[in-house]
């Protein structure tokens, strides 16, 4: 019985490893050399090769090499103990930078649509990085990281709202208010569309942004602004219980 259980465990582990490797690859790609290097876990070699493609006039307009660069940097950041930590100290920020370049090069959006799993994985890591500064009340640095995430998710108005909240709380009022108005205009259009499906990660971030910002306003003596902020959140996020609870606390 013990032997059978060990075999089942090994079988499950192998399936998990195979699945992880498969989903980590670029979907719909055409650069076989990059595919092969990434598949055999030669991440630094893949990174160097992909960077060369981005600098080559024949390939620099293709989004795929930029995506590989981002993926390699992200892997290195997540497994930094396997690499030169000093050399790759900005690996996560490089992953964000090349993800943004990838989005700009992906004119049709097809490659992005085929690789949202990686983008969501990167988004989670980057939100964790931004939160490190946010919960330390370093809103200027938090705004910077959220802004970098927004560069590779430019259609995500919830992210822009969080950028605005951080900017306002870091006393960058002009840009913060401008970005908040842009974000709210976009959010109203998006949530009015029944077919709109936001990324779960960033919608949770938006909920927190509304709640935290309305609390900040209320504690700063700006009761009317606090009520207006959470009323907007209630209008947009009708089914969210945390928003409802905050609304009842501040308005009712």
Query: Gyration radius, to the nearest Å?
Result: 21 Å
* Cα distance spanning the termini: 62 Å
Would you give the CATH topology of the largest domain? Serine Threonine Protein Phosphatase 5, Tetratricopeptide repeat
CATH level 1 name of the largest domain: Mainly Alpha
Number of strands: 0
Overall shape:
elongated
Encode the helix/strand succession as letters: HHHHHHHHHHHHH
Name its key features:
252 residues, elongated, mainly alpha
Note down, in words, how this protein is organized.
This protein is mainly α and 252 residues long. It has two domains: 31-114, no CATH class; 138-252, Serine Threonine Protein Phosphatase 5, Tetratricopeptide repeat. Helices cover 75% and strands 0% of the residues. The protein is built from 13 helices and no strands. Helix 11 (200-219) runs antiparallel to helix 12. The longest helix has 23 residues, at 2-24. The chain starts with a helix and ends with a helix. The model is unreliable at 1-23 (pLDDT under 50).
Short précis:
This protein is an all-alpha fold. The chain has 13 helices and no strands. The protein is elongated.
Topology:
Elements: H1 2-24, H2 32-39, H3 43-55, H4 63-78, H5 91-105, H6 110-114, H7 116-134, H8 139-152, H9 157-169, H10 173-192, H11 200-219, H12 223-236, H13 241-250
Helix pairs in contact: 2-3, 3-4, 4-5, 5-7, 5-8, 7-8, 8-9, 9-10, 9-11, 11-12, 11-13, 12-13
């Amino acid at each position: 019985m013990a032997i059978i259980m060990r075999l089942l465990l090994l079988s499950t582990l192998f399936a998990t490893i195979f699945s992880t490797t498969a989903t980590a690859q670029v979907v719909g790609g055409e650069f076989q050399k990059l595919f092969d290097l990434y598949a055999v876990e030669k991440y630094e070699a893949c990174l160097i090769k992909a960077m060369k493609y981005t600098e080559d006039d024949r390939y620099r307009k293709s989004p795929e090499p930029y995506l590989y660069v981002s993926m390699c940097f992200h892997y290195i950041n997540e497994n930094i103990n396997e690499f030169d930590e000093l050399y790759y100290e900005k690996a996560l920020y490089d992953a964000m930078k090349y993800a943004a370049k990838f989005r700009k090069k992906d004119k049709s959006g097809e490659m992005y649509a085929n690789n949202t799993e990686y983008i969501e994985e990167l988004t989670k890591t980057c939100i964790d990085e931004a939160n490190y500064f946010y919960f330390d009340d370093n809103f200027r640095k938090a705004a910077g990281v959220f802004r970098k995430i927004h560069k590779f998710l430019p259609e995500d108005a919830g992210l822009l709202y969080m950028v605005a909240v951080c900017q306002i709380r870091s006393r960058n009022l002009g840009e913060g208010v401008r970005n908040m108005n842009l974000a709210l205009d976009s959010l109203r259009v998006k949530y009015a569309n029944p077919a709109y499906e936001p990324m779960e990660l960033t919608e949770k971030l938006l909920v927190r942004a509304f709640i935290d910002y309305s609390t900040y306003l209320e504690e700063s003596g700006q009761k009317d602004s606090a009520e207006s902020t959470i009323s907007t959140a209630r209008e947009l996020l009708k089914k969210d219980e945390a928003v409802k609870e905050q609304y009842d606390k501040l308005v009712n």
